[in-house]
From TrEMBL:
It is found in: Mitochondrion inner membrane. Belongs to the complex I NDUFC1 subunit family. This is NADH dehydrogenase [ubiquinone] 1 subunit C1, mitochondrial. Accessory subunit of the mitochondrial membrane respiratory chain NADH dehydrogenase (Complex I), that is believed not to be involved in catalysis. Complex I functions in the transfer of electrons from NADH to the respiratory chain. The immediate electron acceptor for the enzyme is believed to be ubiquinone. The lineage of its organism: Eukaryota, Metazoa, Chordata, Craniata, Vertebrata. It comes from Crotalus adamanteus. It is a single-pass membrane protein. Complex I is composed of 45 different subunits. InterPro entries: NDUFC1 (IPR026192). The keyword Transit peptide applies.
Amino acid sequence: MAATLRAAKRFLQFPSKVTPTLSRSIFQIGREDPKNPNWIKVGLSLSSTLLLWVMLIRHHNYEMTEYERRKKDS
């Protein structure tokens, strides 16, 4: 029992050579400046959102007209 607890304790500890404060994520290169936004990213995200909403509404209208046409035929 004691050997199992020692093995579990050793497994759950941080390695002594790598400390979490000194390690960096490879995806975090720099901090984003909230006073100077990246307008290209803002424009792309807003335009893609608008495009998706337009496509959704057009598809919904198509489905509703098809539903009404089939309802009238039967």
